[in-house]
Design a protein that fits this description.
This protein has 590 residues and is of the alpha+beta class. It has 3 domains: 127 residues, Jelly Rolls, CATH 2.60.120; 227 residues, Spore Coat Polysaccharide Biosynthesis Protein SpsA, Chain A (Alpha-Beta Complex), CATH 3.90.550.60; 185 residues, no CATH class. It has 18 helices and 26 strands. Helix 4 crosses helix 18, helix 9 crosses helix 17 and helix 10 runs antiparallel to helix 11. The radius of gyration is 26 Å and the shape is globular. 45% of the residues are buried. This is Galactofuranosyltransferase GlfT2 N-terminal domain-containing protein. It holds the Pfam family Glft2_N. InterPro entries: GlfT2_N (IPR040492), Nucleotide-diphossugar_trans (IPR029044).
Amino acid sequence: MTAYRLQNVIGPDFGRPAVLYRATGEAVDGPMPWAMAAGDIFDFDSYFNAFFPDVWHRHTKIGRVGLEVAATGPIRVVVTAHGTHSATLADTALDGSGVVWLDDLPKTGRVSFRVEAEADTRLTDLGWVTDVPPLHAPTLSVGLCTFNREKQFAVTLAALAQLQEQNPAILHIWVANQGKTFTNPTIGEIDKRDTVSILEQTNLGGCGGFTRTMVEATSVATPATHHLLMDDDIILDPRVVNRALGFLAYVEGELAVGGQMIDLDDPTILRELGAKLDPERFVQSIGENSDLTTPEGLAQFHDTPRIDYNAWWFCVIPTATIKRLGLPTPIFIRGDDIEYGCRMAANGVETICLPGVAVWHESFHHKTSDWLTYYDMRNRLFVASLYPQLVWRPASYYLLGFVVVFMFQNRYRAADMNILAIQDVLAGLDTALGADSESRHMALMAQLNQLAPYPELAPDALPDTEEGTLEPLDTSIPSMVWMSVRDFVLCTVNPLLRPFRAPRRFPYVPMPNNVGARDYIAPKTPEAEAYVLYKARPARLWSVMTRTIWVSLRYGLKPQAHFDDLARALEANRTREHWQALFDLPRDRF
């Protein structure tokens, strides 16, 4: 019986934690072959090498599943199902190569295996297989957007370029460079290839960079069947790209496939396997803070969680979908993936998370630039206007509560940015988007620079502090009201108490319930080369609260017709002609 490969077993590589690839077996490292001494046991019950049947049974057309093994000597293979139907599925002795077919494979849960060496041997190949040939041979174009991260980006591009040499299904790599012209020699050599294109354009944000790659990928004579979007600030094990292609070979119709985000600084901790739209929080990260080295962390993939969208740190979209639905809405940054995910969902294209496909990305905890919160708020209101059937249009009290979080984090500049975002949406699209994405962003930065900055401290100049505690924020209305009243009182008396109590210290900017209207410090970046002092300031608090109440009331009184007009205007800005005009803007205008 012919065996068709579904998923290769891969060893630890690219500096990533070995425990994500194997449970036991120190010799399992890098590419095969892997040497085994008699009596050795290699256990592959791990995030990258377990098989999760639920996602395959739901979304693909496969038959029987088995494990294909190639070794130079006698081994024993034990295959185990974990979850509701935990059981030993196979316990088979092999003398060299063979396929262990699994006739009682459960439709959910997790399937893992271990290999026991009965004599000195080498493992030369391992992989999950099926007895049904692929439905088709998917091909891939890759779209990368980058802005002044040349050193880190060169590593990702080199890994992809090497993979492209090995896998002819990767037809083309498109790079939208919105920063300084590359000087890295590695990038220069890769750019000489006919199958790699580096496109320089003005800074249109991540949205503009990704959209440029989508335009180019769908404009060639013979486009790839799918387009992969990836960030520039990731660490990539390029073999997961092959994983995605292997899965898509068995998919009928249009389906978007997303990869998970693992914390760059805590590289076994999952930060997001995908996200749902949430009426109260707008988006809810699924799987946040789970440990992928534990049975509990792996169990969340036993029944594939439903997601509404996948962030574009790794997301594969059918090119047929892009052609049919058009291009993203030009919203610069922070929400382009949400907007397009909503559009796909509204038009019958599901987005799924594929276990064993992930990138390492900087944690959200350290993305605290105040200007980002402008785009979070503005684009949240845009998406609610565009997709009212999917996204709840926030009520006035929601906007008030959202800004209150920043107030009681002592992040008054961020609160001001949110107020500005609401004002701009109320003013209309010409104000909210500006003449173009870059000029609007530059105007925003000029406005931010007029606000008093937070004091920054060197690591060797920190004051005495007390350790802060980190507890989740209760976002229920009674809890938020109580916190607001309490912290208003505490903030008012804080200047009197400041000489008698030290600031609190946190590993990152905490939720406001942990601040308690106190001064506190937190690292500016994950590397902690500088710290920021966030001081409770009663006058600023009263000013921000008054303006937030006023703009929230104005928002609540705005007629629905305004938001309907806003949606139509946003849709009109998606055309290729509009985007081409943006791409044609000269670089270095500012």
